[in-house]
Amino acid sequence: MSEQTTTPTVEGTAPDGDVLVEARGIKVHFPIKRGVIFDKTIGHVYAVDGVDLKIRRGETYGLVGESGCGKSTLGRAILKLEPPTDGSVIFDGIDIATLEGEELRRKRQDIQMVFQDPLSSLDPRQSVESLLFEGMKAHGIAKNAKEARPRLVELLEAVGLPEAALAKYPHEFSGGQRQRIGIARALSVNPKLIVADEPVSALDVSVQAQVINLLEDLQEEFGLTYLVVAHDLAVVRHISDRIGVMYLGALVEEAEADDLYAAPLHPYTRALMSAVPVPDPVIEDRREQILLTGDLPSPSNPPTGCRFHTRCPWRQETKCETERPVLRVPEIAGVNPSQRVACHWTEQIASGEIERHAVTATATEAGDLDTGPDSLMGPASISEAL
Ligand SMILES: Nc1ncnc2c1ncn2[C@@H]1O[C@H](COP(=O)(O)OP(=O)(O)OP(=O)(O)O)[C@@H](O)[C@H]1O
């Protein structure tokens, strides 16, 4: 077995409470094919490479990381839309890999998805009534549109749209309204878990806040559990109870949202957080940005050992290059035991025993984290809008 496919073991305290969904050692490796006749596999994209996580009933788990780190693929694997290369997903106590046919269809009702771009996820030829009714019919919730109508009106009301919307088509709505329809559609089959993949990144900032607030209200009203995949730290912070930070197909840190933002421990999370502007001008003045050297490596050829070592300002020879760190509870006084970090040197970095290497390159030369509108930092105003 190659180094890339070694599943990191997980140590430490798993989150307690009523777990709705658990991913165990999930891997999704996409084959890279070449050749017209023989279609030879010449390598793999290690999109997700050994992820363990648990999501408690009623909580919002935010998954964050740079573009291409495997967030969406992990979300799709949890939905069984992407068959995992290895590992299992336990949903409500059942391994969903063992389900087929009718059983899988019934379980699918419990897990729904909200997509980034509602325009491409909603069939433009279908009216809102037809879009909302479709899932209800497939899952035997209503036989015909007439029978479904009171429920459809209720759904629209829940997402803040009038009954008149039922007769209209997706192109007749604004982006925010279309996302509301996408959410109503997910809700139409009474799911337990909603996987929302970048649910607001295609929307204007002011509309983003409205949709995030709507998701929160609906969670309370319907007792929903959310897995929110997003690259915008401000969005994830606002909506999540817990957050997992992904880097090149693996979780590098997991913590309660407040703990993660107050004291990130993994060097990658520290770098992400250090790039977020602070509204307080005094603190902002003192904010020291941690620059990352080098580009994000390709997931088809990830670095050996710690995936992050090629860009880590605290890397140490030779352990970081040779040993893949496990996700573990660090031995640091006062750290919440639900905070887990995949770094060999968490304690030494926190105590200052290991110092950060001096970065001589400028932000641009160093392959600094993108701070544009689509970056992990997102538009500055979203924090204010929420
Ligand atoms: N069907 C596929 N076949 C081959 N490679 C794929 C496939 N789907 C995703 N990938 C690759 O897997 C890696 C992870 O992709 P994924 O979309 O999960 O990342 P992400 O973190 O969600 O990024 P983004 O925010 O840009 O969507 C990327 O390198 C991507 O190119």
UniProtKB/TrEMBL annotation:
ATP-binding among keywords: yes
UniProt keyword annotation of Nucleus present: no
CDD domains, sorted: ABC_NikE_OppD_transporters
InterPro entries, per the entry: AAA+_ATPase, ABC_transp_ATP-bind, ABC_transporter-like_ATP-bd, ABC_transporter-like_CS, Oligopep_ABC_C, P-loop_NTPase
Location of region: Disordered: 363-386
Pfam families: ABC_tran, oligo_HPY
Domain of life of the native organism: Bacteria
This protein's UniProt keywords: ATP-binding, Nucleotide-binding, Transport
GO molecular function: ATP binding; ATP hydrolysis activity
UniProt GO BP: peptide transport; transmembrane transport
Positions of the ABC transporter domain: 32-273
Family: Belongs to the ABC transporter superfamily.
NCBIfam families found in the cross-reference section: oligo_HPY (TIGR01727)
Name by which UniProt lists this protein: Peptide ABC transporter ATPase
